[in-house]
Amino acid sequence: MITRLTTGSRHHFFGYYGICPWNSTGRHHLALQTDFHDRAPRRDDKAVVGLVAADGGEFTPFAETSAFNLQQGSMMHWIDVGFGEEFTYNDWDGQRLVARAVNPETRAKRTIDAPIAAVSPSGTTAIGLNFARMSACRRVVGYANSMYALESLTPIPEDDGLYQIDLRTGRSGLLVSIAAVHRQMPRFQGPHWFNHAVFNPGGTRLLFVCRVKQPTRGWTSVWVADADGNNLDCVI
Known about the structure:
Blueprint: E1 11-13, E2 28-34, E3 47-53, E4 59-65, E5 77-79, E6 86-93, E7 96-102, E8 109-112, E9 116-119, E10 125-128, H1 131-137, E11 161-166, E12 172-177, H2 178-184, E13 192-199, E14 205-212, E15 219-226, E16 233-234
Antiparallel strand pairs: 1-2, 2-3, 3-4, 5-6, 6-7, 7-8, 9-10, 10-11, 11-12, 13-14, 14-15, 15-16
């Protein structure tokens, strides 16, 4: 049986498959709330970040973010790394993309210095992606911004790609660069970007997609690597 959780004139949605929206007790469901759902978000659009109660469907707001899209939401996750159970959502901090971690019981909020795409089964490590760069390459999965335009994009950067995030400290560092992937497959030219990062069930390996934008067609390749970025290999 399918039960509709929310009601009213506003749109409520979560984000992406493969991420569990329910907290550990099954009482709270992560959601974004918007007034629109029929166009891509613009830079000045904001979504309300909140929780939907399993019993009754009441939406409780906690914050707003403009780092979202309608396909993947704000890539929200539940984590528990020593600050009580928290939920995360991606956000802008000036001209920088970050993630926020919120304890729904105390409403305490802390900042993680990179946007989150996937959380390891260990619960302490995450993978980050540059959703601002994505906006120039494929708007439907990116976050609207004024910093990245396709015509001025560095096609194959050394300083961008897949990021490793320590969820306890909030610090991050580059794990696999776009240039490292291109060196293994140099025949593809054009603006590259990474998307769809995910850990294996043991948290020891990760998988991600590299895409190349071209005027008439694009190329997609699927890559795997150890969780520390070593043993990078193209599998498709």
